[in-house]
Amino acid sequence: MAPERWLFWHRRDLRLADNRGLAAAAAATPAVTGVFVLDPAILSDPSMAPARLWFLSESLRELQQAWQQAGSTLVVLRGDPAELLPRLAAGLGAAVVAWNRDVEPFGRERDRRVARALQADGRKVLADWDQLLVAPEALKTGAGDPYRVYGPYWRSWRRWVEEASATGTAASGGLDPLPPPSALIDLDPAQLAGALADLPLTNPELKHGFLEHGFGGAELCPCRPGEKAAQEQLAAFCDGDSRSISLLGYEPGRNIPGEAGTSGLSAALKFGTLSPRQAWAAAQQARPLARSEEERYSIQVWEQELAWREFYQQALFYFPELAEGPYRPQWRAFPWDNDSGWFEAWREGLTGMPIIDAAMRQLNESGWMHNRCRMIVASFLVKDLICDWRWGEAAFMARLVDGDLAANNGGWQWSASSGMDPKPLRIFNPATQAGKFDPEGTYIRTWLPELRHVATRDLISGEIAPLERRGYPAPLVNHKVQQARFKALYATIKG
DNA sequence: CCATATTTAAT
DNA sequence: TTAAATATG
């Protein structure tokens, strides 16, 4: 008798190794078929970035080959998962459909619909956590509430991760990365063809992969698609050979946008070509390489970035209203200027403030922006241009290769001072930020080649003589004037 | 053991 | 300013 067939539904876990849901399926039966559904509701949304379509398409193409090498098939469909998954499961004769859980309101509602449809057909559903080191339910404050403040969350998160690490294996609740499944069993070709006959199947085309993405910045983007590239990037970042621009030099290297001092793994973690447990394990293996207190501290700072990612995901899980706008009610009445001309100048990198324009051009050309610059341009849009941060949030989502609702919304709410974090106003002075983090003007000159001739001091301050500008715009606003205006408007909503 | 007041600390 | 931890009744 043939073994029971399971269907595994990939979503934001585009890898075979250390995929908890897939491993659970493979532990139950070797007869596992994979599926990914290209959902027009997501792909055609205005917030979908060409860079993400590129990353998704390339990662899927590699994942489909990996399934084949593991002995089975990854089916790629296009349409509504709630309609297609029951049909595919029926065609395959799958008894169980498994997937990894998500935190986003849209995904959770979709998953409920899919589960209801499958269960109505008498199929079992298996869904558990994979995309976080620590499941949202695992950490609560002393009062039993979800954490709203990063500091206490980080301490609690680290304690939990260290205790779970000590137990080792996944079976005993540990965090050791799992190997990929191998020796899977496929349906025989005729049976598979029959199961797929009436389904909207998508095959990778020779040139573009699964999707027409129209993204031209792949060469400039630091994020590499696919499971294999993610492993290589992680290993290179953690290896200790290039200490100043890697994990061991992460602090302060991570804050210098003109150097490649960050891991570039944001998109890999967003799409799950890399698991957070793999990232955590690599950081632990690098600890013996650290030869100074600074290098040990660098590892911890990177671990804290993994914790920020999980903090914002658990926040969205427990407070889905974050996705709709300001968490703090008084911010909902803020009298934004919302000048659409200023907003467009910001979005296209034409504000006349070099550090802002360099950062926005990096985003527009490469699909990625250095995190320090994300904070600087966010503060500028909100506190200098006095524009609703949700416009900036949407603009980031429309272009970022790693655009993720929880992280992007969390970052913008942090910058706008409207989030759960109880700290008062944060106003960055863009010139001070440029002076601290791009002191030689390296980053500015990289992305604003038309200003390469300008003295570094003027690139940082933004005070460029009209004859030196050569077509580069004059500053749109004056920081001193605008921050005073912002504070006056803020006073009207306080309390 | 609760509920409430006070203290502490926040990338 | 306010969440979280801790002290107090």
Automatic annotation (TrEMBL):
Cofactor binding mode and count: Binds 1 FAD per subunit.
Reported cofactor(s): FAD
UniProt-annotated binding residues for FAD: 250, 262-266, 302, 305-312, 402-404
Pfam family for this entry, one: DNA_photolyase
Residues in Photolyase/cryptochrome alpha/beta domain copies: 4-133
GO MF entry, a single one: DNA binding
UniProt-listed SUPFAM superfamilies: Cryptochrome/photolyase FAD-binding domain, Cryptochrome/photolyase, N-terminal domain
Alphabetized InterPro entries for the sequence: Crypto/Photolyase_FAD-like_sf (IPR036134), Crypto/Photolyase_N_sf (IPR036155), Cryptochr/Photolyase_FAD-bd (IPR005101), Cryptochrome/DNA_photolyase_1 (IPR002081), DNA_photolyase_1_CS_C (IPR018394), DNA_photolyase_N (IPR006050), Rossmann-like_a/b/a_fold (IPR014729)
Gene3D superfamilies: 1.25.40.80, DNA Cyclobutane Dipyrimidine Photolyase, subunit A, domain 3, HUPs
Site, as annotated: Electron transfer via tryptophanyl radical: 336, 389, 412
Record family assignment: Belongs to the DNA photolyase family.
Protein name per the record: Deoxyribodipyrimidine photolyase
Species, as recorded: Cyanobium usitatum str. Tous
Organism lineage: Bacteria, Bacillati, Cyanobacteriota, Cyanophyceae, Synechococcales
